[in-house]
Write a structure and sequence with these properties.
The protein is mainly alpha-helical. The protein has 21 helices and no strands. The longest helix is centred in the N-terminal third of the chain and has 68 residues.
Amino acid sequence: MSKKTFLKGAAILGFAGLMVQVMGAIFRIPLGNIIGDEGMGYYQTAYPIYVFLLVFSTNGAPAAISKMTSERIALGHYGEAHRVFKLAFVLMGAIGVIAAAVFFFGAKPLVNMLGNPGAYYAMMAIAPALLFVPLMSVYRGYFQGMQEMGPTAASQLIEQAARVAVGLSLAIFLLPKGLEFAAAGATFGTSVGPVMGVAALMGIYYLKRKKIHIKMEYRADEPKESSKSILKTLAMIAVPITIGVSILPIMNIVDVVIVMQRMQDIGFTGDEANSLYGQLTGMAGPVINLPMALALSMALSMVPAIAAANSLKDTHFLEVNIKLGLRTAMMIGVPCSFGLMAISEPIMRLLYPLQEASAINASKSLFLLSIGVIFLCVAQTMAGTLQGLGKPGTAVYGLAAGLAVKCIVTYILVGLPQLNIEGAAIGSTLGFATIGIYNLFAVKRLTGIHFDLKLSVWKPLMAGIVMYLLVAGFYFVANRILGNSIAALISVGIGAVAYGILLIKLGAIAVNEIKYLPKGEKLLVLLKKLKLV
């Protein structure tokens, strides 16, 4: 197998992740405007729990299958690589049936336990998705193991498009029946998306089946591992990987469990607590999903590349990928973090014009969450590195430490009336920081790699600070002339261009590296014409 850095795969999945988040915004932002913070509170009570289970099927299992497949292909054991796919298909199908039954028949006790019974129908509506999501994960992991990211990207786009179209339509249709039904309709779109995603992946596999079957035939000298051993290894890898990459979903589950009850303990009514919770998780939370999706795409793309290098004991290639991973995480996280902090309230007002009072109040939480975006990107990327190194359990320890910080800080600060819901945002940010720092030092300890902090950390941070000042300053002036929406949009564009130029001028990204980006050759020609390189 030819050597490949993860960057090309990350670019493909990153673009797909970007488009998925854009379509998600098309869904979540109008949904927030239509059903408000109360409806989003019902929606977000069901959705984070579903997302955690979804992570196993979309990240944990694919990463495990990807790792096991890429390792066998690297050693020339093509028949065994295909057996991983077939056995995983059976296992994940069984898991899907069980998970769907738990959600459907256990919806009532779940929402009662969480203190938000109005989310009952939304909880039931997500159950059918779990019949199809696990099967989708098997195809994705298999293709990723062959370092073919296109099928995963295509299925993500199709899945999200179906989810947006069906979910938003049902939310509008069911709104007259009440917010509980509208939230359930929005959630049911999640069940339609995986059906379409599975159909797309099955179609791609069908078109490639002859080529795959010829390539994956057993050789006479190829060792054959027992089915029990393969399934055991798959489970042992997938479970810690799931936990390791479930940073955001698990943090959101902590909010579901703690925030509602804690706010009622200090005097808020159930409806007030639900509305404030909707502002945090349903309005501010989705905004940070974009950088999180890009970082997670990088993490998933790094797994097969690093696993292959680790299997072949290619220390140089391993070091190149890991160092590039940290740099890329910082170059994604820093502008997203500083940009959101600079104009958090204008962005919320732009996105939720029909719920302006709630949007302004939610902007405080967005500002606090934005601080943690850098750490979240590093945490996700280094978790992917640990998975590729065969140490997914190490990432679990980092998550456990971050989760402990999140729980303690959230419980204490949400209990302070002057902070209330903002205490949960502070808890998340400190949790992200704990996980990111832990994972980074864990990678350094395991590999002995010496990171160039000036290149990877300080230069992106310097560019981010300058960008922050430019964005905040431009918006302050432009808002008085152009109004909030236009000023905010132009500010985002100025920030993106300024940050890119600053990275080049500060030497944070080398000229020869630009050509490896999507359309990099054309971008390099343009930059030379503008005399920026």
